[in-house]
Amino acid sequence: MDSLLALLLGYACGSVPFGLILARMAGLGDIRQIGSGSIGATNVLRTGNKGLAAATVLLDAGKGVVAVALAELLWPGTQGVAAVAAVVGHCFPLWLRFKGGKGFATAAGVLLMLAWPVFLVCAAIWALAIAFSRISSASSLSAVTAAPLVAWGLGRGDIALALAAIAAIVWFQHRANIARLRAGTEPRVGRKTKAEE
């Protein structure tokens, strides 16, 4: 029962569409009608409002933090369930007909709460990947893929399975990006393009 409650809590937290809400509050309309149609920060950035995109990143990560923190407080031992559910909620929100974001920011938030040393290592991996590739999606995929391996290496095998599940979700949500990476057409950071990320 505790795991079920943590799952429902995590999903509810994760499914709050901050990108959509902030864009509407700023008078930018429905973010789903531009770019990739995603509710995430990358698509919010396509409006040209960098501050709004930054706020979306923080809030999307924050809902992952809140989901795991509440699960730890209310039902100790269910943090991994809440973490996966929060990412699922962000990517497949019931209120938006299961069409949400790509999950990376929320994944970062839950990882920070699950194991901050693992988060720091993965953040470094992300930074190195973005510095060398200049491709946001490749950097995000590198970090989430490394997360369960880093967790295992740092003695946190208890969360490795949850992190592997989160990585699988994020990879699924990035399937269009992966196709462009294989084709060599994925846009690089700082390059203006109409291609979807």
Summary, kept brief:
The chain is mostly helical.
Name the helicity range: 55-70%
Give the tally of β-strands.
0
The number of helices is 10
The topology string of helices and strands comes to HHHHHHHHHH
Protein traits:
single chain; 197 residues; mainly alpha; 10 helices; 0% strand; globular; disordered C terminus
Topology:
Blueprint: H1 2-14, H2 18-25, H3 41-45, H4 50-74, H5 79-91, H6 104-114, H7 116-133, H8 136-153, H9 160-173, H10 175-183
Helix pairs in contact: 1-4, 1-5, 2-4, 4-5, 4-6, 5-6, 5-9, 6-7, 6-8, 7-8, 8-9
Description:
The protein has 197 residues and is mainly α. It has one domain. Helix content is 68%, strand content 0%. It has ten helices and no strands. The chain has helices at residues 2-14, 18-25, 41-45, 50-74, 79-91, 104-114, 116-133, 136-153, 160-173, 175-183. α5 packs antiparallel against α6 (104-114), α5 runs parallel beside α9 (160-173) and α6 runs parallel beside α8 (136-153). The chain starts with a helix and ends in a 14-residue tail after the last helix. The model is unreliable at 193-197 (pLDDT under 50).
